[in-house]
Amino acid sequence: MKKKLSILLVSALLSGCASFGEGIATAFLDKQTEEDLRECRVDGKSFGGMQQSFNEASDSLKVLMVHGVGTHIPGYSTQFKEKLAAELQLPIKSSRYKEIKLINHEFPDQDLGTLRITRLLSQDQSREMLFYELTWSAITNPEKAELKYDTSGAYSFRRAGVNQMLKEFSNDTSPDPMIYLGKSRNQILTSFRGAFCWMIGLEWDALPTGVTQECRINRDAAKYLESDEYAVVSHSLGSRIVMDGIHSIAEILAMRKEEGQLQMGAAKFIETFQKKKIPFYLMSNQLPLLEMGEDPTEITGQYAEYCVPGGSRYAERLVNSTSIIAFSDPNDLLSYAIPQEFAQNHLDSRLCAEITNININVAHVIDLFGMGKFANPLTAHTGYDSDDRVVSLIAHGIGGESTSALVKDKCKWVEFVD
Fold first, then answer.
1. Beta-ladder partners of 120
2. pLDDT given at position 18
């Protein structure tokens, strides 16, 4: 009996010690996250964020969102969109969204994805943001379905539970870059061009909904293009898609101009487009990684010729300037900063790109009791669009009058000058 009582007492003490130790560990880790010592460093010129579009008396700001790897369904950007609207003080939302199923005559049997548009307004309805959410997963899902057997019961019962979850995640995300760089590249870029076309071609009231329709630029597009402001937001693989997509638009316009195929009003459209300044906000930027093994862009290293007034090819630029703001978490295993030499050697000179790198910890870094520091790489890859500092930088920029108190307090800025 005494032995049994002793065993029970020791067990209770050990259990209590374990619970006590677990409590200390949890409190220790929670304390580290509460302090929020995450780094935020901005290297580049000042930029005004999306707020600048409204400061310049624009009636409408049009934002295109493009997702990255993994299966996405329409509505995936809701949290980011709502946080962005709150930052820009746009509390009124359209009672319904408009949705267009994208198609193109070059791929008549291919579902090119879905474009969902939401309208957001200021309290007095004087400021408007049209948010265009592109979902292109319909293009890659059929190929990824061929891996479904690997997570079925025939194989999954042999795996540990956590490993099964990781396997499902890997099978859903890792094929997308390979599919994009393979035979589905043109379809995905066509999907982007279609979404971009709908964004610049029509205003809210004229946009259709519940249709499966190809976009064509009409004669009024130049008028809307002149009065509206634009921005593009992407995540991971989306960074490559949007830059390749804009490059492909430049190629198509240049080819048609050389061949004399520009339709009536197209010359005016190009002239107006060349005056635009379009910011690209690349979250979990992957441009340097996804450039591996690719043929370099033909027109590079000619910034002065294309982008400086008086340059020998100034009339052939695509836009006035492209502001590329690249977000990367050093603990995100799949994101990269953009070195200036990369921009010079790999980005199309006709984009007149200016680079700002934002090195930001979106995942908390914790000290594992002296065994080393650790940050969850999954959170570091997926946490950008829910991070208040990221959203605030996109909304208000840095170095201007509208820079938020949060960014001033949490982010170090190393300003670049010419």
1. 93, 129
2. 47
pLDDT number for residue 6: 52
Q: How far apart are CA 309 and CA 124, in angstroms?
A: 39
Question: Tokens for 60?
Answer: 């409408």
- Domain span including residue 81: 36-415
User: Do residues 180 and 188 make contact, with C-beta atoms less than 8 angstroms apart?
Assistant: yes
Q: What is the CA radius of gyration of the chain?
A: 25
Counting the structural domains of the chain, the total is: 1
DSSP 131-194: EEEEE-HHHHHHHHGGGGGGGSHHHHTTS-HHHHHHHHHHHHHTHHHHHHTTTTHHHHHHHHHH
How far is Cα 63 from Cα 82, in angstroms, rounded to an integer?
13
25 part of a folded domain: no
What are the distances in angstroms from CA 387 to CA 373, 379, 407?
21, 11, 12
Give the model confidence (pLDDT) of 312-335 as tens digits: 999 888 888 889 999 999 999 888
Report if residue 14 sits inside a domain: no
Q: Note the pTM of the prediction, 2 decimals.
A: 0.87
In angstroms, the CA 38 to CA 112 distance is 39
